[in-house]
Write a structure and sequence with these properties.
The chain is an alpha+beta fold. It is built from 16 helices and 12 strands. The strands form 3 sheets. A 5-stranded mixed β-sheet has the order 5-6-1-7-8. A 4-stranded antiparallel β-sheet has the order 9-12-10-11. A 3-stranded mixed β-sheet has the order 3-2-4. The chain starts with a strand and ends in a 15-residue tail after the last helix.
């Protein structure tokens, strides 16, 4: 199977659309002055040490001459769809795993008599005609294909022949394996394991004691013995959660400010839910105190909701379990999930007392606000809480799904 990985995708699209930026360092991300984060850096910027997920302030110090842009996610999705069409022209088995990556099945004889290498070269040529480039890894399973795709970038084609997986993986550091983060790598290092070859030789019992059930699975993957298939794409991607989060240019420290921010974020989530025709029972609040430390709390309700105020009330009630006076808040996020068999709650026009249901009016207000924004733009109508947050949040555009 193969793994196609688009090279510096967001930055490449920006250079395609802005000829004057070609050959120059380009950074897609938020402002250095507002706690932005780098989403993607062109290869010209990477030569200065800039990389994805780096703080924009750090990237600006490393590469002060870079061209900065917040990006255009609609344009990136359009280009991604065109690339996926190229893959489906070659094989019916394509499993897109992110906006810039997809596994595809080119097993010899399964869908074509052609060599998988020739198919991959044709795919790369067709992608290049779009104005961007990709790197491809070929291997017997997803782990090998994924790692192979990262070996030679940009425009790389790395083939790991059947039977050579263990030798290919053995010298690589354990962090090369997806799913092995800093914490797992540190625990493995305490066991004297630094490379995938060393990991492949550790007894399952020892790994299970240290890492739980995931340990033996990592060993199988490190040995190149994983069994995996390219899943057929679903007719429509299932939405598991809808969320929104904001990083603040200056930490929040006041309880009222935090609650107002939570309610503003909840309003965005409510609008997204209604746009998708969804309602959910579980509300999640996420708080980050600094770049590396954060917590989440959630509450599951009896009824599904999509109303701004109802979501905000639940999220605000969770603040006390995650924040204490004196703590600084760098990021807040609100999410709604639990959509299975949870259609929108049917509001009765009259409650038990015969009075109009107060929630009915709130839901009507929310939908009226949606309609006004849809027709006249997001700034056509707003709440005081939203106005108070303007200029106080990071301007990093949401480039990826942020379900939590």
């Amino acid at each position: 199977m193969g793994l196609l990985d688009l090279d510096a995708f967001f930055a490449s699209v920006e250079q395609l659309d802005h000829p004057a930026w070609r050959g120059r360092p380009v950074i897609v991300g938020g402002s250095p002055e507002r706690r932005g984060v780098v989403s993607t850096a062109s290869y010209e910027a990477r030569r200065f040490g800039v990389h994805s997920a780096m703080a924009s302030a750090t990237a600006a110090r490393l590469c002060p001459q870079a061209v900065w842009t917040q990006g255009n996610f609609a344009r990136y999705r359009e280009m991604s769809a065109r690339v996926m069409t190229i893959l489906t022209d070659e094989t019916p088995r394509v499993e897109q795993v992110s906006i810039d990556e997809a596994f595809f099945d080119v097993t010899p004889g399964r869908f074509s008599r052609e060599s998988p290498v020739e198919i991959c070269r044709r795919v790369q040529a067709r992608v290049a005609e779009l104005g961007v480039t990709c790197s491809i890894g070929l291997g017997v399973n997803k782990t090998v294909a994924k790692i192979a795709s990262e070996r030679e970038k940009p425009r790389g084609l790395t083939v790991v022949m059947p039977g050579t997986e263990a030798a290919f993986l053995a010298p690589l550091p354990v962090r090369a394996l997806s799913g092995v983060g800093a914490s797992t790598a540190a625990r493995l290092e305490r066991m004297g394991v630094r490379t995938l070859g060393e990991l492949a030789r550790v007894p399952d019992a020892a790994l299970e004691r240290e890492l739980g059930v995931v340990g033996p699975r990592l060993r199988v993957r490190a040995a190149g013995a994983e069994r995996s298939v390219v899943a057929e794409a679903a007719a429509e991607e299932e939405v598991k959660s809808v969320s929104n989060e904001r990083t603040f240019a200056e930490d929040l420290t006041d309880a009222r400010e935090i609650e107002q921010a939570v309610r503003s974020i909840a309003g965005t989530v409510g609008r997204r839910l209604r746009r998708k025709g969804l309602a959910g029972r579980t509300v999640t609040l996420k708080v980050k105190y600094d770049a590396s430390r954060g917590r989440t709390a959630r509450r599951t309700l009896d009824d599904a909701i999509d109303d701004d105020r109802a979501i905000a009330d639940v999220a605000a009630s969770l603040v006390g379990s995650l924040w204490q006076p004196g703590e600084r808040v760098r990021l807040l996020g609100v999410g709604v999930s639990g959509f299975d068999d949870a259609g929108p709650r049917q509001m009765s026009l009259f409650g038990a007392t015969g009075e109009a249901d107060a929630g009915h009016g709130r839901e009507g207000l929310g939908r009226l606000t949606d309609a006004l924004r849809e027709r006249f733009g997001d700034d056509a109508v707003g709440y005081g809480r939203d106005l108070r947050l303007r200029g106080r949040t990071s301007d990093t555009a949401p480039m990826h799904k942020s379900d939590f």
